Amino acid sequence: MGRPVLDVQGLTTVLAGTEATILEDVSFMVEPGEVVGVVGESGSGKSMLALTAMGLLPRAVRRARGRIFLAGEELTALTSDRWRERRGRDIAMIFQEPMTALNPIMRVGDQVVEVLRRRRGRSRSQARREAVELFRQVEIPLPEQRLRAYPHELSGGMRQRVMIAIALAAEPKLLVADEPTTALDVTVQAQVLELLRKLQRERGVSLLFISHDLGVIAEIADRVLVLYAGRVAEVAPVRQLFDDPRHPYTRALIASIPETRGPRGRLVSIEGTVPNVGAMPTGCRYAPRCPYRRALCDLGPPRLRTVTAGQEVACHQPFGFDLSREVASA
């Protein structure tokens, strides 16, 4: 498919002043025009992955190892000023809660105009015309009037559409969407997902879509990255992941989706919780919760291995395969 839009290699982040890992040895790629979904429980490192890719790590967290490439250029080798230039122009982010991401004392139209002027060098009048067109594209009704609104005057769905317009304003190569539908009701969530998919296809932009909702991931993603406790558990095309998951954690996540058809049964849950930062198991991080745990699982963390075409799993014995001999001799 050519050079990937985003190439993350061995990314590890830690709490500043410690060696307590938040993300550890995370590697994946996003191809041109591809939607990669990132899924996992709270505490799995999804939002930290998004912030690291954007170069927006909080002061309490630092990147210890790993490299991030955007369209072949290594972002992690850039100065903070140069990385700031790339944000918004080449890589943009749609945040989870637009009410806290939007400036509450600026009209939403001015916030779009600011991006167009700074990132694309438009005049004020030209930027205003383009802002109106962007509002039309994200299906905001009465766009000329909405430009003059403040964030608190818009509904949650409208605010999220404004966030999408801001993210698209500079025509980035990659959009990072960090749970953009979590704060919305089900009907509006479906509308925003449909809009994102439509804009992604029309513009050919790549999308890194982060969610804890497997139903949302199934609807929008082409390929899925399953995170657990800061490590990659499984990577696979979306249909393959749901039809034939190979990691016990992936199977447990899918099994926990409530059944909407047939007789009502007991909800399936995953026993235990995601381990805290600084208290990670020395072996497989999922082992303490895994019903298939063996002595081998406590010896060391499993490496990500290809088990079928396009499907990689970090498990000492993924379903249908026995890699114990290879692990023991490694």
Describe this structure in words.
The chain is an alpha/beta fold and 330 residues long. The protein contains 12 helices and 12 strands. The strands form 2 sheets. The chain has an 8-stranded mixed beta sheet, with helices on both faces. Helix 7 (156-168) packs parallel to helix 8 (186-203). The protein has helices at residues 46-54, 80-86, 98-101, 108-120, 124-137, 143-146, 156-168, 186-203, 214-220, 238-243, 248-255, 324-329; strands at residues 6-15, 21-30, 35-39, 61-70, 73-74, 91-94, 174-178, 206-211, 223-228, 231-237, 305-308, 311-313. The chain has a domain at 6-79 and 212-258 and 268-329: 3-Layer(aba) Sandwich (Rossmann fold). Residues 324-330 have low confidence and may be disordered. Helices cover 33% and strands 22% of the residues. It is globular and about 65 Å long.
**Tell me, what's the shape?**
globular
CATH class call of the domain at 6-79 and 212-258 and 268-329: Alpha Beta
Mean pLDDT: 90
CATH superfamily of the domain at 6-79 and 212-258 and 268-329: P-loop containing nucleotide triphosphate hydrolases
User: Biggest β-sheet, characterized?
Assistant: 8 strands, mixed
Distance between the termini: 32 Å
What is the CATH T-level topology of the domain at 6-79 and 212-258 and 268-329? Rossmann fold
CATH architecture of the domain at 6-79 and 212-258 and 268-329: 3-Layer(aba) Sandwich
Which value, in Å, is the CA radius of gyration? 21 Å
Structural class: alpha/beta
Helix content percent band:
25-40%
The low-confidence runs, each spanning 5 or more residues with pLDDT under 50, are 324-330
**Percent of residues in β-strands:** 15-25%
Widest sheet: strand ordering = 6-7-8-3-9-10-12-11
| Total DSSP E strands | 12
Q: Can you count the helices? A: 12
